[in-house]
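Here is one chain, start to finish.
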Amino acid sequence: MAAGGGAGAGGGRHQAAAPGAALALLGAVPGAPSCPHGPALLFVKVSHGREEGRRFYACSACRDRKDCNFFQWEDEKVSETRLAAREEYNRNHQPPFTHRQNVERYKNFVLLPLSKRRFCQECQQLLLPAEWGKHSSHQILCDISTAQLISPSQLLYPLENKKTNAQYLFANRSCQFLLDLIISLGFRRVLCVGTPRLHEMIQSKASQEEDFRVRSLLLDIDFRYSQFYTEDEFCHYNMFNHYFFGGEAAHETCRKFLHQDKDERVIMVTDPPFGGLVEALASSFKKLMAMWKETEKEGYENQEMPMFWIFPYFFESRILEFFPSFSMMDYQVDYDNHALYKHGKTGRRQSPVRIFTNLSPSMIVLPVEEGYRFCAICQRYVSSGNQHCEICNSCTSKDGRQWKHCSLCKKCVKPSWFHCNNCNCCALQNHTCEKTDAGCFVCGKEGHKRSTCPSLSRTRTSCQADKKQRQKTLKRVKIGIHKRLAMKHAIFSRRKIKNKKKKT
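Its structure:
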């Protein structure tokens, strides 16, 4: 999940949802106010399928208010003074150098002898000799080699806030597999949306191998990459609101790249932060697909831009809701800097990250040496543990383990699940039974709970809201008890004084 798009499209943290309520994303709105991460998104609280309270704008990129505290009611009238202050704030929170300036700095940097090539780890910046003094107290890397410059993802610190950047980088195994697959499918242009490691592998091969014909363009919110790539190789981009920070020039760079020649087919590969809202991502991806469609030539009128969306398998229903033509591959994607998402683990420890694509599954050849096999009935490659179910007529496993068929649920379920007669579905053996007769608390429809409501992505769990509400109630009760005790004490003291006076 590279840092493309900046973040889990947020908003939910600004206005705490009341117990039983959830936050619905209404999407990007023309003329929306902006924060340093581009135009804000519009949200509203929803309960039982109905809007509750006022609509509000929040940052598209940050789910934690400490990362970006932008908030504005939709119907709020903002004064000229406040607007001016906001514009000033947005300007002050932009990078110190423009992309063009960074390109010129890079040209000067590579001309330096190895002994004068320095990188500030604290500022994450390539340093020219005139700047050494300002960074003298910082942690500095010296003797930056050409190999490091063409592999910037290994030079830069990964941004690992899973709600904001989630910059988990492909392991070399997965990166090489993706590139080999792309080449074997006949694609020669790769739009890398939040996949810096794939982009740098393509760029590295293109600079070292004369017969390598694949080109790539990186769209990413991590502006640090502008230090290493030209304006034709990198665009500063927020994938949650489809915002090009470089304006119309960057938008045109992307449009030109998507212009498909007969011999240079285009594919988009994206690896968003897993904490982001799927509907916000889907909206941006559809806009990129529309850009591709605008530039297409004859013969592609009714086609979608080919795409690999890399995401955990448990988001399958959400992705299919927006892209019904997509299917999920069994290939397990692993990452260098993630403790859990590693290849070779077994059982529940396997990486849950998969490839969703609108290409035919029969075209995606998975490595047999890693245990994948071809199912002649399903006409696709599956993992070794994914056995074909004759009743479902499909290879049904999602997590790499062999699933079992439940005749009552009429589908295959995880091996650790058992049928519960109270819930009338399969679940873990030690689960707490919950009936869904009353319907979903969010949309009011029967057949599912609030936690699995397909119409919303909850941005704040109800238990957190319940906990806050209980704390507030407990505080009020305590204050009330203290007041009553104080009143009783005062009344008792007065009575005591009166009784003493009567006796005397």
